[in-house]
Amino acid sequence: MTIKNGFWRRFCRNKGAVIGLAVLVIAALVAILGPWLAPNDPWDMVERPFLAPMGGPGMLLGTDTLGRDILSGVIHGTRVSLLIGLISTVVSLLIGVSLGAMSGYFGGWIDAALMRFTELFQAIPSFALAIVLVAVFEPSLGSIIAAISLVSWPPVARLVRGEFLTLRQRDFVAAALLAGQSTPRIILTQILPNAISPIIVMGSLMIASAILLESSLSFLGLGDPNAMSWGYMVGSARTVLLQAWWMAVFPGLAIVLTVLAFNLVGEGLNDGLNARADGRTK
Amino acid sequence: MKRLQFMSIRVLQGIAALLVIATINFMLIRAAPGDPVSVMAGEAGASDPQFVAQLRAQFGLDQPLGTQLMNYLGHVVQLDLGFSYRQQQPVLDLILDRLPATLLLTGSAFALSILLGVVLGAYAARRAGTWVDSLTTVVALVFYATPLYWLALMAVLLFSIKLGWLPAFGYITVGSGMTGFALAMDIAAHLVLPAVTLALFYMAVYARMTRASMLEVAQMDFVKTARAKGVRPGRIQRAHILRNALLPVITLAGIQAGGMIGGAVLTETVFAWPGIGRLMFDALLQRDYNLLLGCFLVTAAMAVLFNLITDLAYTLVDPRIEL
């Protein structure tokens, strides 16, 4: 996709989006450089348990119930959150875009059947379904990503269907049909590129909700047992909240910041990619 | 009786959705680790093949999968959700025991989130572009990005531990022996924190939706007409703009209802609220799959019910319902 003229100008006019992007760049760096940045292994007992923040040399955020360094845990958690957020969003975009594109392009009974299927999926409480899926298939990175993707695609399918319904009627599609292009080619090279902007915006918002969903699963003890994650840290601090506020506060702040940043960037992308909204006062 | 027709179609769709969910549930029960028969045989302390085969036949597990599914659906229709071997009770009894608490919590959170969201969104839309509007947007954004369980923990930290204003755990003061009005007030005090924390996230969603929707409707021709014929501004806001702007909010509320009911698992876990969510968490800890999937089915049924309620609300706000 070529970035439209003035994308950055419109994106940067949204101050929140710029701040969000800055936070995301930092988060991405932390995720990539995590093992070198973190002072300790997040699973190692490095100090006495229940050490308050600044309570010892190098123990900026204190230790948890097992004496593990919270700062190192938060740094390592970044990687898990971003990874799961990104991959599960890509997977649910793939599902949602395929179903929505077929629905909007072919119309008729295919559309009716696919939309009933989508509505049905939307009627299921997604978090409850995700819990059950991860519990039944045992918590692991794979099952968590699969569960999040499986419960997140319906809004994408509806959005893409709507875009395809209108774009299908446009002259350039008729021209492509006349030129004898195959159906997959028309869908992928003619219509999809024209529908990509709202999909990108929705994608960035979906990463945010995927991160929230992953952290909620880990909070309930359904995280990957081999990965230190923010939700798990808050979850294990739940019962000792009265004695040790810091164990729950810092990982939670990391989640809020990251999710907020993705939402803000999503809004900026919307401003930037939507040239028609240019000049309209907010 | 167009409304009746509309609602009966919705009810039928809801029932169809529940049957499909029950089918998914059946497949998940099959996929769950630990075949129920070997679990039972293990608990009976016997593992001889003949006994296991006998158990299989007794529970219909030797029949083709299609027949098993039909049997399962037949049981579900009769509200038989199986037996929890850990708690030694039928799953349905365990759930019914917890149902009132969950309905109280999700119902009040649902109403609260819509009420607060619409009021906040309408207020922001009316003062669009001012600092009040910006502040509302920021507050909505922050709540939208905050994990439900973390918000709940922070609320406990602030309002129960630091300030001591509200009880943090359970739903009645244990051993107080209160009755009547005092008991109702006690439950209400315990309800405040769980209901508000569950509502705030969705309040943020509805506030943003209401604001955007009101600004859009305000541009429409019929609003200009109303203004031109001299209708008072306050009446335009309420009767013309807000009423029409509410429609997408109600649709959204219907879609989000399932999310809120699922979210109750988190709030109930944090606040030790004795509802289905908490039951689901306990089932999770004990790897009690029968109970877990029973809870899931009932949660889905509740979501379908909340959807029907929003459909009904929709027909009340907009008499021109179309299907």
Brief write-up:
Chain A is mainly alpha-helical. Chain A has twelve helices and no strands.
How are the SSEs ordered, and which strands pair?
The complex is a heterodimer of chains A (282) and B (323).
Chain A: H1 7-13, H2 15-37, H3 70-106, H4 108-123, H5 126-136, H6 141-152, H7 154-167, H8 171-178, H9 183-191, H10 196-219, H11 230-237, H12 245-273
Helix pairs in contact in A: 1-12, 2-3, 2-12, 3-4, 3-6, 3-7, 3-10, 3-12, 4-7, 5-6, 6-10, 8-9, 10-11, 10-12, 11-12
Chain B: H1 2-31, H2 36-43, H3 49-58, H4 65-77, E1 83-84, E2 89-90, H5 91-126, H6 131-145, H7 148-162, H8 180-217, H9 221-228, H10 233-271, H11 276-285, H12 289-317
Describe it.
The complex is a heterodimer of chains A (282) and B (323). Chain A is mainly alpha-helical. Chain A has a single domain, classed as MetI-like (MetI-like fold). Chain A contains twelve helices and no strands. Chain A has helices at 7-13, 15-37, 70-106, 108-123, 126-136, 141-152, 154-167, 171-178, 183-191, 196-219, 230-237, 245-273. In chain A, helix 3 packs parallel to helix 7, helix 3 (70-106) crosses helix 10 (196-219) and helix 8 runs antiparallel to helix 9. The radius of gyration of chain A is 22 Å and the shape is elongated. The model of chain A is unreliable at 278-282 (pLDDT under 50). With 323 residues, chain B is an all-alpha fold. In chain B, 78% of the residues lie in helices and 1% in strands. The longest helix of chain B is centred in the last third of the chain and has 39 residues, at 233-271. The model of chain B has no long low-confidence stretch (mean pLDDT 82). The radius of gyration of chain B is 24 Å and the shape is globular. Chain B has a two-stranded antiparallel ribbon with strand order 1-2. Chain B is built from twelve helices and two strands; from the N terminus they run ααααββαααααααα. Chains A and B meet through helix 4, helix 5, helix 10, helix 11 and helix 12 of A and helix 1, helix 6, helix 7, helix 10 and helix 11 of B.
